């Protein structure tokens, strides 16, 4: 597979010294230049916030493919691979912030905003409405050079990050599993992330977690409603869909990258999980996004 390029702003060559600490532009202004698709890339020195006001899209955040509904915020810390496909009616903004200007906020402390994620805003609630309004005002402040502009931009960014952290924390706490079970599931997911391309059997994961095969499946089923084998297959499907949608690589190359020795076997695996062959799925999803 091709290496993931590093940019300051998407499609622009990295310079040693950036000439800005924050940049703001509309999603449509840049994505329309690239057929509404931002291919996989990363930023080594910048934190990004994407606010999708209307329209829709899909994001690849490292190895996950995540839908982006309207009124959503995507946060992408430095160093993470990410890409997007947008519907043609998309409206929103993208903020690119130099890491050294984040101060000591949640994105720098290794908190919830230290990993890429999508947070849907409930604009009927005070915090969700405030974030949406603040990002809209931030874009206006960036475009108009009025007195106090820099201080206001910094304040808007800080309050947005703090509120996004609060909302993400509340969502996580409401969905928490019992602590021991949660630790087991987190450890299993970490192992799957590390080994899914090697197609290790479930017995390998049970041994690594020092539990019996039966007990591991019992834990997984009670926590997430499926088997450990299903979790491994789910991870393979997430990566398969991400590569099909956000790369131009042929199916045979994607199959090899995911550890499938036989492209035909990969196609049968994908068909059993998605209900259609990978080539058909790719064409249908690309057409859906282009015509949205």
Query: What order do the SSEs take from the amino end to the carboxyl end, as H and E?
Result: EHEEEEEEEEHHHHHHHHH
Mean pLDDT: 86
Distance between the termini: 29 Å
Spatial arrangement of strands, main beta sheet? 1-8-3-6-9
Query: Low-confidence segments, ≥5 residues, pLDDT <50?
Result: 104-110
Cα-based radius of gyration, to the nearest Å: 20 Å
Shape: globular
Descriptive notes:
The chain is an alpha+beta fold. The chain contains ten helices and nine strands. It has helices spanning about 25-30, 125-145, 150-175, 180-195, 200-210, 215-225, 230-245, 250-255, 265-275, 280-290, and strands spanning about 20-25, 35-40, 45-55, 55-60, 65-70, 70-75, 80-85, 90-100, 115-120. The strands form two sheets. Strands 1-8-3-6-9 form a five-stranded antiparallel sheet. A four-stranded antiparallel sheet has the order 2-7-4-5. β4 (about 55-60) and β5 form a beta hairpin. α2 packs antiparallel against α3 (about 150-175) and α8 crosses α9. The longest helix has 26 residues, at about 150-175.
Itemize the secondary structure elements and their pairings.
Layout: E1 22-26, H1 27-31, E2 37-41, E3 46-54, E4 57-61, E5 64-68, E6 72-76, E7 82-86, E8 91-98, E9 117-120, H2 126-143, H3 149-174, H4 179-195, H5 202-208, H6 213-224, H7 228-246, H8 251-257, H9 263-274, H10 278-291
Antiparallel strand pairs: 1-8, 2-7, 3-6, 3-8, 4-5, 4-7, 6-9
Short description:
The chain has 292 residues and is an alpha+beta fold. The protein contains ten helices and nine strands. A hairpin with a 2-residue loop joins strand 4 and strand 5.
């Amino acid at each position: 597979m091709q290496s993931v390029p590093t940019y300051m702003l998407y499609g622009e060559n990295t310079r040693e010294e950036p000439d800005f600490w924050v940049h703001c532009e509309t999603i449509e202004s840049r994505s329309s230049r690239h057929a509404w698709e931002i291919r996989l890339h990363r930023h080594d020195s910048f934190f990004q916030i994407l606010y999708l006001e209307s329209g829709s899209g899909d994001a690849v955040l490292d190895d996950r493919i995540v839908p982006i509904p309207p009124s959503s915020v995507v946060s992408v810390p430095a160093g993470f691979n990410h890409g997007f496909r947008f519907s043609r009616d998309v409206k929103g903004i993208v903020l690119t912030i130099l890491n050294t200007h984040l101060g000591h906020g949640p994105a720098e402390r290794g908190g919830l905003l230290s990993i890429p994620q999508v947070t849907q805003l409930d604009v009927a609630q005070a915090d969700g409405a405030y974030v949406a309004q603040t990002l809209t005002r931030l874009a206006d402040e960036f475009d108009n050079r009025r007195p106090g502009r820099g201080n206001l931009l910094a304040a808007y960014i800080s309050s947005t990050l703090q509120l996004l952290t609060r909302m993400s924390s509340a969502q996580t706490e409401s969905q928490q599993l019992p602590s021991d079970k949660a630790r087991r599931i987190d450890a299993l997911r970490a192992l799957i992330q590390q080994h899914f391309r090697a197609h290790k059997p479930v017995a390998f994961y049970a041994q690594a977690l020092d539990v019996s095969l039966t007990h591991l499946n019992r834990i997984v089923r009670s926590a997430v409603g499926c088997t450990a084998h299903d979790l491994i297959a789910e991870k393979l499907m997430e990566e398969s869909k991400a590569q099909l949608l956000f790369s131009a690589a042929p199916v045979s190359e994607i199959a090899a990258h995911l550890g499938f020795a036989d492209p035909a076997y990969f196609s049968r695996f994908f068909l059993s999980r998605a209900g259609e062959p990978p080539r058909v799925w790719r064409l249908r999803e690309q057409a859906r996004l282009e015509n949205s």
